[in-house]
Design brief:
Layout lengths: L4 E10 L2 E11 L4 E5 L6 H9 L6 E6 L2 E2 L5 H7 L1 E3 L12 H12 L4 H14 L15 H13 L5 E5 L7 H16 L3 E5 L3 H5 L4 E6 L2 E6 L1 H5 L2 H6 L8
Parallel strand pairs: 3-8, 3-9, 6-7, 7-8
Antiparallel strand pairs: 1-2, 1-4, 4-5, 9-10
């Protein structure tokens, strides 16, 4: 069976800065893939190329076996590609429910009745039922992050890209969000997750890749990757010969 996502020899540069250097990654259906790497490693740019916000200079992106490299973000969303952002970006003047409704109607293309039902399910799933009628701009950070994830889920993704969802949270808040992400994975959604809070990532992902300088330098079992000398030296600043 073809992977749900295949990145083939992706390259991208901004002027003299190389942010993706011949990156190839396959993501099997139902897998949770973690991505780590220092700031500037090319992680967010890679997400941009998957969603269509960034056009690669070379290489291609395949989703469900079809080449989607030249499709717009909206077209990819309709196919089942959704993402959250590191800094939540809700419509602050709209209610939580209305934010979800926009994703269900515009992102997933659902009719009114089906969209309403999905939004109610998403409110419950994301722990936002009691906040359905609150303005999104009045939410706490954890609630905004739950809404950010909920908006992605309301577009009915087959592939969910998560960008730093644990950042800025307390330990208890992080645990609750990890439980939510794990439940999403268990429902059958394929996940690709960028995260600096490594222990949160390791609690969910099946596989871990490391980016450095736009290149893929490690790919495999999360525990083995984290403890590899190369990753310790490049990502954590620990000399490999120590």
């Amino acid at each position: 069976m073809a992977p749900i996502l295949a990145l083939v020899n992706l390259s991208k540069r901004f002027g003299a800065i190389v942010v993706a250097n011949n990156v190839s990654v396959d993501v099997p259906r139902g897998q949770a893939l973690g991505i780590i790497g220092p700031n500037g490693a090319g992680k967010t740019t890679l997400f941009g190329m998957v969603t269509g916000a960034v056009t690669p200079d070379a290489g291609r992106v395949a989703f469900n076996g079809a080449d989607v490299t030249r499709l717009s973000p909206a077209q990819r969303c309709r196919l089942g590609v959704a993402r959250s952002f590191q800094v939540p970006q809700p419509f602050g003047g709209m209610s939580v429910f209305e934010n979800l409704l926009v994703a269900a109607r515009m992102g997933a293309g659902l009719g009114a009745g089906e969209a309403d039902r999905l939004c109610v399910e998403t409110l419950e799933r994301c722990g936002l039922w009691d906040h359905a009628n609150r303005k999104a701009g009045s939410l706490t950070l954890l609630q905004r992050k739950r809404l950010e994830l909920g908006r992605a889920l309301a577009s009915k993704p087959k592939l969910l890209l998560l960008d730093e969802v644990a950042g800025g949270l307390t330990e208890e808040e992080c645990k609750s969000l990890v439980a939510l992400v794990r439940a999403v994975k268990d429902s059958g959604v394929t996940i690709v997750w960028i995260e600096h809070v490594v222990h949160a990532l390791i609690a969910v992902v099946d596989r871990l890749v490391v980016l450095h300088g736009g290149a893929l330098i490690a790919d495999g079992d999360p525990a083995q990757v984290i403890h590899s000398p190369e990753v310790a030296e490049i990502y954590m600043g620990i000399p490999a010969d120590v």
